[in-house]
Amino acid sequence: MAALLAAPAARAGLLFPESGGSPNADSIHTLYVMVFILALFIFVGVEGALLWALFRFKAKKGATAAQIHGNTKLEVGWTVGAFLILIFITAFTFIQLPSIKNPKPSLIDADGNQVSQVEGAQFAATNQSVPKGDTMTIEVNGQQYVWRYLYPGQDQLLTYTDMVVPVGMTVLLDITADDVVHSWWIPKLGGKMDAVPGYTNKLWFRIPPDAIPEGQKQVVYTGQCAELCGRNHANMYGRVIGMKMEDYKAWYAEKVQQVKTAETDVSEQQKELTEQQSQGDGE
Amino acid sequence: MSDHSLGRPQIIASAVDNPDRTRGWTSWITTTDHKKIGIMYLATVLVFFILGGVEALLIRTQLAVPDNTLLTPERYNQILTMHGTTMVFLVVVPVWAGFANYLLPLMLGARDVAFPRLNAWSYWMYLFGGIALYASMLYSPPEAGWFSYVPLSLKQYSGTNGQEAWIYMVHLTGLSSIIGAINFIATIHNMRAPGMGWGRMPLFVWTILIYAYLVIVALTSLAATVTMLLLDRNFGTGFFDPAQGGSALLWQHLFWFFGHPEVYILVLPAFGVFSEILPVFARKPIFGYKAIAAATVGIAFLGMLVWAHHMFATPMSTTVLAFFMLMSFVIAVPTGVKIFNWIATLWRGTVEWTTALLYCVGGIATFTMGGITGIFLAVFPIDWQLTDTYFVVAHFHYTAFGASAFAMFGALYFWWPKMTGRMLSEKTGKLGFALLFIGFHTTFLIQHSAGLSGMPRRIYEYSESSWTVYNFISTIGAFMIALAAAVTVFSVVWSLKRGAIAGPDPWKANTLEWFTPSPPPENNFDVVPRVRSVEPMKDIRREIEQRTNSEQRYRSGQPLMR
Ligand SMILES: [Cu+2]
After folding, report:
1. Which candidate, B59, B86, B83, B87, places its Cα nearest to that of B73?
2. Whole domain around residue B398: which residue ranges?
3. What's the predicted TM-score (pTM) here?
4. Is B437 at the interface with chain A, CB within 8 A?
5. How many whole angstroms separate alpha carbon B105 and alpha carbon B121?
6. Catalytic annotation on B335?
7. Could you confirm whether B262 is annotated as catalytic?
């Protein structure tokens, strides 16, 4: 079993949830492994006892069944035992919870410079707390059958399906939906949160700076909508692309420029069309 | 003939049989006899079980390989909605109504249920509910899933009338279950044999009593909820439509307020079946009768306080999350107590490996795994990773299929001789059990991994190559389950014509239904014995032994059927 747990990353997916893209995903992984170990003991104990009873006490000639109606001590004992195990899991959950629920501070500032780690005040509040230092808030909006992201800043940049973020930066997500219920989920970046029309749900992640593979410019995490949202639910994908801050800034500027050009193109085309029409009217 | 009476208790009930009135098809559609109604329930359940099973096979075939185009997305969503709805509303709830109908009066020493005509009505409402749903196959079946989340199930997003068919089905079968529950409660409270206090009532009857109370709480609430959906869809109320100030979360809370007690409606009677069959074949009294009865009550009560653990990923405060996590843990305790008691019942017994017993032990083993994965899901941060994935699909099949369907088959093998007077073949039975057990675990164990590696529920196709192996294995298992079901159906049909004659008490069992001939006459009992313990048949056999000086009890290792 030690060997089994020694290489959790290799077993991710088969026995353990995905992780590695964000501290909260890693904390959920730790919590899961702890429950998994306990569950393994319970499983072996209970199933073992059941099988033992089935085989060991199989009817044979000459055997007699003990006529026992119960045993109060034993029954109280296992009731208390079950409670204790669950109290232990509860305690461990609440120890892990802040690191899952509350965003960690960014490892970099808005200019991409490394910052020294100052842990933000951690409390498990109704909504996630806001960590110290720079963060980035992206509004995630689910629609049949596409994810739309609204980036911070005055440009009101929108992208679809692919979300681009700087690595090391804590990204706070405000998750909403326009039509039906969807569920935002990128397994390696932590748990899922439902996008419910009329409500805003919260989630966060922080991609480790060293997640970008050597020789490459970006790291990509994939996922898809997890709540049945209609006929094309299976094709509602989401991707999160992590880049270095300078690459992100370049990407952002380019995107904004593209949108502007497109808008100008459109208004020029419109102008032309109107002119053509008015000319046509004149003839 | 005197030889024959040796191994058996004396029977003091005789058939009051008027062939004109009790045979032929008109006798079935006009009957108010709880036994005939019970059999009609079970026969109808079998039909819907096969339909739901075929739907499951279509789902599994579609998912066997990536990018499969066997089913269109529309068809796929319809089939998965029909599968879930059928299995919950038309199979597992009514299967217990069927067994309870047949067995309750017999176990209690009563001649019928309290309200025989209402009983017939409740069967017909169930049948019509099922037909209402399946009639939608002719135009357009519902496609918003068995929990029909709003806004997807609102008119804007589900325009076809399939959703209405779903609502009418819920109304009709709900009414059927509620009327049936009132009937069971009245029967249990008022019609027990002399001497049968609450502490001597068979545990199956205990679970049916609690099932009935849960049905009344949960299904009345659901009836109101789906009525609101009906009004939203057709008359412009805005309970659930966010665009009109309605709440999409409200539906989820209301639905799961029904939905979680529903889970216990499905499994508590299965627990009752385990608690009846294990002591018979361990030849040992049930271990901790009072604890099991109390745990049943405890589970039912707590079962009403855990609904939001289905909604951990919705916007909720940590306080709410923590409350529902803790309650979900607390409910694990009485459930665990039952499992321990069943193991202790087998312990130091002389366990006969009959098909019925194997189904029970297989069911307990499977359900235990579902309980353990339930702990993962109850821890809400872990649930954020697992909810709405195949991990959850695996989990609830381990509980619902593991407990309910295994118990269903166990109950069939155990009580079939009583219902028909003929035995089912043990050889075919064990083959069916082995296929079902292996097939089940092949199908569902691997689905945990599919979920852990990121596969969401209810997707009609996938391209991710790492899921292919998981899905292919799962599909192979599903066809083994189908084979197992076919073996059982064959065994049942074969037994009807050729099964060995069972006699009144082939298993040397414990409860009063084995006191009367198989199948029982219309009036069940001519004389009802006084009940002195939880195991009245043991007392009766002992008395006959003393009176006639011929051995009646079971000796370990002696073949059951000769
Ligand atoms: Cu979606």
Report:
1. B59
2. 10-556
3. 0.91
4. no
5. 18
6. yes
7. yes
Structure ipTM: 0.90
Please give, rounded to a whole number of angstroms, the shortest distance from the CA of A147 to a CA of chain B: 16
The answer to whether position B3 is within a domain reads: no
| Nearest partner of B286 among B264, B271, B305, B265, judged by Cα | B271
Residue B4 lies in a domain: no
Question: CA nearest B346 in A: which residue?
Answer: A53
- Of B35, B260, B508, B541, which residue is the catalytic one? B260
Q: Is B309 a catalytic residue?
A: yes
Assess if residue B1 is contained within a domain: no
Query: What tokens does B193 get?
Result: 């044999």
Counted domains in chain B: 1
Q: Does B308 touch chain A (CB under 8 A)?
A: no
Domain CATH for B23: 1.20.210.10
- Which pairs count as long-range contacts for B539-546, CB under 8 Å and 24+ apart, including other chains? B540/B9, B540/B515, B541/B9, B541/B508, B544/B9, B544/B10
* Of A123-127, A144-148, B64-68, the least confident: A123-127
Domain ranges of chain A: 17-57+71-101, 121-265
Reported as a pLDDT band with limits 50, 70 and 90, residue A60 is confident
Under an 8 A CB cutoff, do B372 and A181 touch?
A: no
Which helix (H) or strand (E) is A143 found in, with range? strand A135-143
CATH of A121-265 given 3.30.70.100, 2.70.98.10, 2.60.40.420, 2.60.40.10 = 2.60.40.420
Task: Tell me what the mean pLDDT of segment B69-86 comes to.
Answer: 95
The verdict on residue B2 lying in a domain is: no
Residues of chain B with pLDDT > 90: what percent? Answer: 83
Query: B366 at the A interface (CB within 8 A)?
Result: no
* Closest residue, chain A, to B291 (C-alpha): A75
B12 within 8 A of B58, measured Cβ to Cβ: no
